[in-house]
Specification:
This protein is of the alpha/beta class. It has a domain of 127 residues: P-loop containing nucleotide triphosphate hydrolases (Rossmann fold, 3-Layer(aba) Sandwich). It contains nine helices and ten strands. The chain has a six-stranded mixed sheet with strand order 6-7-8-3-9-10, sandwiched between helices. The chain has a four-stranded antiparallel sheet with strand order 2-1-4-5, with helices on one face.
Amino acid sequence: MLKIKNVTKNYGDVTAVNNVSLEIDKGEIVAIVGSNGAGKTTLIEMIMGLRKPTSGSIYIDNKEIKISDADSKSDIGILLQNGNFYPKLTVREMLDLYGSYYSKTMDVNMLIDLLKLKPVLKKKYGKLSGGWKQRAGLALAFINDPKIILLDEPTTGLDPEARMILWDAIRTLKSDDKIIIVSTHYMEEVSDNCTKVAVVSSGRLMDYDSPDNLVSKIDKPNARMDDVFFHYSTRKLA
């Protein structure tokens, strides 16, 4: 379980995340959604262990995530929107290199087959298209067999085929002992693929529920997840 307990993050006089508490069970694919500046990125960076909360704590299986703790980082896999990987290494070299960092890894050949990476294994990462880069990045996010996988805008800029391949792989890699957290602006992908949604606005957690339940709360005929997004994005907070 991932437990976020009364977490606040301040930058001077600005409160980016405001007293957020959230519990995410294993086996969930959770979307964190909200408009730009809502606090999504800061919250995700604290889960990653890249930023320290001003107050509050974050736990993985009752163990607090700390910036300096290597064990915490080994429990987490990350795919950033603009992954900063080694451009001159081939895909195969990157998989072998990143796998060597950890005592426990997933089956690399399984990841290669699942993400259909064989055609680019000998190609340098820096020469790949956006879709291939995201597939390789997803393999690297899972390579250490993490408990929590954080995917930041994983399908932004991808064509429909690449988006489908990526989501097929994410759903396949989902298991009862993992938590997958996705930050995205594609509400259709949220509806189709995510089991729960955390809606964030002005640094606050506005709601946390399944896509269907969130839609049912919107007083609008034929409402969709887009309507949930706009409802909370335009809502005035006290």
